Amino acid sequence: MEMTEATLTMQSAKRGRVDPHRSMRAYDADADLMLLHFGPQHPSTHGVFRMDLHLDGEIIVKATPYVGYLHRAVEKLCERLTYVQQTPVVDKNDYVSPMTNEQALTMAFEKLLGVEVPRRARWMRTLFAELQRVASHLLWLGTFALDLGGALGGGSTLFLHCFRERELILDLFEEVTGARFHYNTHLIGGNRHDLPAGFAAKVHSALAIVESRIAEYEVLSLNNGIFQMRSRGVGVLDGELALELGVTGPNLRASGVDHDLRRDAPYGAYDELAVNVVTAQGGDCYARTQVRFGELRESIRLARAAIDGMPEGPICGHKPIRQPGQAKATSGQVYVGIETPRGELGTFVIGGGDTPTCPYRLKIRPPSLHALSALPYILPGATVSDAVAILGSLDPIMGEADR
Amino acid sequence: MQSAWLSALAFLVVSTLLGLGVLGAAKALRVRARKDSRIKHLTYECGEQPDGLAWMQFHARYYVVALFFVLFDVEAVFLFPWAVVLRELGAQAFIAAVSFVVVLMLGWFYVLRKEALQWQ
Amino acid sequence: MSALGHGALYGAVLIAVMLSTVAVGIWFERKFAGRMQSRLGPTIVGPMGLLQPLADVVKLLQKEDIIPAGADRALFNLAPVLATIFSLGVAAVLPLSPHMIAADLDIGVVYMLAVGGLMVVPTFMAGWASNNKFALLGGMRAVAQSISYGVPLVLAVLVPVILSGSLSLAGIVRWQSEHHWFALWPVIPGLPAFALYFMAMLAEANRIPFDIPEAESELVAGVTTEYTGAKFTLFYLAEYVHTLVGSAIGAALFFGGWDGPFAPGLHWMVAKTLALFVVVYWVRWTLLRLRSDQLMELCWKWLTPIGVALVLIAAAWVQFAPQGAL
After folding, report:
1. What is the Cα B99 distance to its own chain's centre?
2. How confident is the model at residue C322 (pLDDT cuts 50, 70, 90)?
3. Which among C109, C148, C316 has the least Cβ separation from residue B69?
4. CATH number, domain B2-114, options 1.20.58, 2.60.40, 3.30.1490, 1.10.4160
5. Which residues of C touch A151 (CB under 8 A)?
6. Are residues A368 and A397 in the same domain?
7. Which of A24, A41, A66 is the last residue in one of the domains?
8. What mean pLDDT do residues C194-219 have?
């Protein structure tokens, strides 16, 4: 093939750095491009996400992501609700990891209102967050396999097996909170539900099962020839670009950037539990898988440490904050970021306004949205099949990205 | 052997009847929609209005492969009769076919080195 | 009996048998996949969910028939019928037992390759006629895949032809029952040729890991995206029959077809076919899918030269092997 501007653009696109609009102009001149709406009603767009793909044959020349199909005005809703009413609302944001949504929001409110959290509650939240990370990464592995292997084939086999292990974690949460998914267990100033008797043993036995199965899945995916062919060198996101775009979490660490809020800005029990940050080089789908497998192990270790070292004491402040009148802020603004399974989930709250019992403004910074913003840069040069793999490997949750 | 071909023909006719029969049965069983709508007959494109027709020039990227396929298929056509009589014709036929295939594979090797078998 | 009557009778019986095999096969696959995935599979319709395929067929036939407004109606309607004809038509040369062959063609192998190779026509026809971009992508992929994997398929089939010196499927099976199964002896090229045949057959029948033309996680449903009801049923059926017939031909070419002790030939043929059929499912519910360019590279860079080498080894075996070792 001639080295036209178009091919050069495509090659630079393959290296991960390309101006998405320039590549389009380079192509307009001589190619008959197909504009394919990929989503919102598509089996592999992880909910209702839409990409407009300009295709030259099967090669993507330009990709334009569209978000907002799942917009529910959560932030506005939160501004209308009192501080104590909001955890059930944000449970539904990142619907694969509800526990960390609650944690992020509650921590922001606690900081705004100046409420102290007892040590035991902080440790419990850490335990829940790590268990939730295990569940979330397992679900990611399953859906990634679905993207690579199809719902009617090997992919769904791994998917359902991952679901089986995730059930064990959800069972644990059900023990504590009575709910399998929308827990509503975080209160401002502590936790609503204490750990039931004999919970530590149940955590240990569940984690032992999950850990042994993870080893199997690692062999089944990372060591599998087809998996490697489909993920190595696909969707390369370099660390510099990832930082520029605000990509966080496993996606950033897979690009070789050593950044993890649990270690760099400790919260909960992480000041007492040392976190080994897992990174990988390469920034491709394979590296993202490696990082998540490493984090599964690390989270299992942390969850064990958290349940073993669980301190005694109250799970809530002296007087639990349950009534709207107990939580009032007349001024102040805070930002709290925590490391969810998908990256930095930030919550920015301004207190005050007409009603001191409600936040004046609440803004959520979803890690999924920032991960999706990398798509126009890493998709050009890939094929339609790769697009599905790349999108899946970024682990976007549209409930969170669109809010 | 002519009769075997007639049998094969009859077999194909029965297959055709099955295909048409299924369509006919469906026509009889089909539940009809009470109301028709334009949107229902819209081409599926993930719920969006399709931009332009799908009948367009398509960069297939494997026209070299198509040529290559013709090459190897012709090779196969030559090899089939050879395969049947190899036993009777003996060494001469063997050497002839080997040299034929070796020349072909030299071409294959050339194409491989030229990276024409790369998809892009 | 006249030749036409013979063919028609066999056609009717064989097609009925194949359809019921496919129906039970679908049930079996769903149960099998269910067990592989630590779930139960169908349980509600009939005992152990056995009537599930029947319910599916009735449901599919009742569905409203939607032809998209932009489609080429004639081609759109023709494609599923052609797919049925070509996939079923291959079965005409299947040797079920020494005296049970619908059409004992002396060039049955060539007929099988030719009619089987035609399957790409309805697939692409469906992809093009739908006027749907996903279908078009699927159709284009199907063309590339089918013509590419046609080559290793032909080369793999050449091996038993050379070893037995016959182009008739029945002749090849007869030779194997008099001497030995090609998958067992000569081990090279017999066994690798079977592996090559099996892979090419998976690709021709669009089975995972080579199911890129329908790749439901990428192309929604590929060429069948716009098809509903009966026409979709025909495509679905054609795909299953293609796999079933492919398994049967693999059993005949490499595993001695009807040859086996104790039981009548027909039983052996059916048992071997079903065993291969199950392996197809097993592969399907285990592996992930390749990308289209990787698929093509695998074919042209590896399978094709391996196939040529196997053909030459087979020829050399026929030439140089001592008489007793044949």
Report:
1. 29
2. low
3. C148
4. 1.20.58
5. 216-217
6. yes
7. A66
8. 84
Instruction: Give residue A128's pLDDT band: very low, low, confident or very high (50, 70, 90).
Output: very high
Clarify whether residues A59 and A79 are in a common domain: no
The reply to whether A209 touches chain C by the CB within 8 Å rule is: no
- The first and second tokens of residue C9, run together, are 């009778």
pLDDT digits (tens, 9 = 90+) for A380-403: 888 888 888 899 898 888 888 888
DSSP state of B50: P
pLDDT reading at C214 higher than 80: no
Q: Are residues A57 and A141 in the same domain?
A: no
Minimal Cβ distance to B58: which of A36, A45, A57: A57
> What band does C26 get if pLDDT is binned at 50, 70 and 90?
confident
**Long-range CB pairs of A347-352, under 8 A, 24+ apart, other chains included:** A347/A104, A347/A105, A347/A107, A347/A108, A348/A108, A349/A108, A349/A109, A349/A112, A351/A112, A351/A113
Q: Where are the domains of chain B?
A: 2-114
Q: How many domains does chain A have?
A: 2
Question: Is A53 found in the same domain as A165?
Answer: no
- What is the C-alpha to C-alpha distance for residues B18 and A240, in angstroms, rounded to an integer? 61
Residue A186 bridge partners (DSSP):
A191
Ranges of H-type helices in B31-90: 63-89
CATH number of the domain that residue A165 is part of: 1.10.645.10
Q: What is the reported pLDDT for C136?
A: 87
Structural domain including A13 reads: 5-66
> C288: which chain A residues are within 8 Å (Cβ-Cβ)?
145, 148-150, 153-155, 224, 226-227, 230
pLDDT at A204: 93
ipTM given for this complex? 0.83
A230, C290: Cβ pair inside 8 Å? yes
Chain C residues within an 8 Å CB radius of A43: 216-217, 220
Residues from chain C that touch A152, judged by Cβ atoms under 8 A, are 208, 216, 284
